[in-house]
Amino acid sequence: MKKVVNVLSIAGFMFFGAIQSTFAQEAAEESKTFHQELKQRFIEGGPEFMGIVLVALILGLAIAIERIIYLNMATTNTKKLVAKVDDALSSGGIEAAKEVCRNSKGPVASIFYQGLDRVDEGVDAAEKAVVSYGGVQMGLLEKNISWLSLFIALAPMLGFMGTVIGMIQAFDMIAVANDISPGVVAVGIKVALLTTVFGLIVAIILQIFYNYIVSKIDSIVNNMEDASIQLIDLLVKYKK
Predict the structure, then answer these.
(1) What's the pLDDT tens digit per position in 163-222?
(2) Greatest Cα pair distance in the chain
(3) Is 44 domain-assigned?
(4) What DSSP state is assigned to residue 106?
(5) Residue 147 lies in a domain
(6) How many domains does the chain have?
(7) How far apart are CA 87 and CA 106, in angstroms?
(8) What is the per-residue burial (b if ≥16 Cβ within 10 Å, else e) of 85-106?
């Protein structure tokens, strides 16, 4: 029991001593710019894990930006497209409607084209084509999202691993110096805290982008489903 109390006392002394040392250093370096402070903290955290966390951030942001650009280009005014297809069916028939879809961008127009291309085989065949190609388009919308989820989970895990290694370094320093003063263990604990903070920051940033992308995909998919129902209704009316 006494050993457990001694260990807890040592850990508490190390933790509060490291915090006091960090605050004292921050007070002495208030004149530094944000960029300089961030660079210094990154270097102090160690290149091994901080570099991997930075790579996770860069790759995650690259995937997020690519998905956002793709999804924004895939977003179309479905009501306007349905109205154009309706007018084309009334005036020029199937070929005119297909031409409208060829000249329109986005997954909805591609789904419409596949349905119109099968309408000669019957409305049921057109509906099956719309459903099948809708699944293909949904897969394209969700491309690389799993990698973004991986980086969101990986960043804090790397940070926590750095925390464990930093604490091991702190205890190694205690063993070598045979002393538990804050100056001996401050470096190891600082590494532990910095890797955790940077890992969590990266995860938070990527999580915000991930939620935006998922909500954007859900919005496009809902529009696709609604537009597909309207297309089938138009085809049924046209066939009559």
Answers:
(1) 777 777 767 777 776 766 666 566 667 777 777 888 888 999 999 999 999 999 999 999
(2) 92
(3) no
(4) S
(5) yes
(6) 1
(7) 19
(8) bbebbeeeeeebbbebbeebeb
User: In the structure encoding, which two tokens stand for residue 22, read together?
Assistant: 């960090």
Yes or no: say if 82 and 101 are a contact pair by the CB < 8 Å rule.
no
Identity of the residue numbered 150: L
Condensed to tens digits (0 to 9), the pLDDT of residues 21-64 reads 544 454 444 456 756 665 666 566 566 677 888 888 899 999 99
> Both tokens of residue 191?
């590494």
For Cα atoms 54, 31, 187, give the angle at the middle one, nearest 5 degrees: 50
Q: How many CA atoms lie within 13 A of 99 on its CB side?
A: 9
With respect to residue 75, please indicate whether it lies within any of the assigned structural domains. Answer: yes
User: Does 36 reside within a domain?
Assistant: no
Domain that holds residue 72: 1-24+52-240
- Give the three-class secondary structure for 103: coil
Distance, CA of 115 to CA of 10 (rounded, Å):
71
Residue 43 is which amino acid? I
pTM of the entire predicted model = 0.73
- Sequence letter at residue 172: D
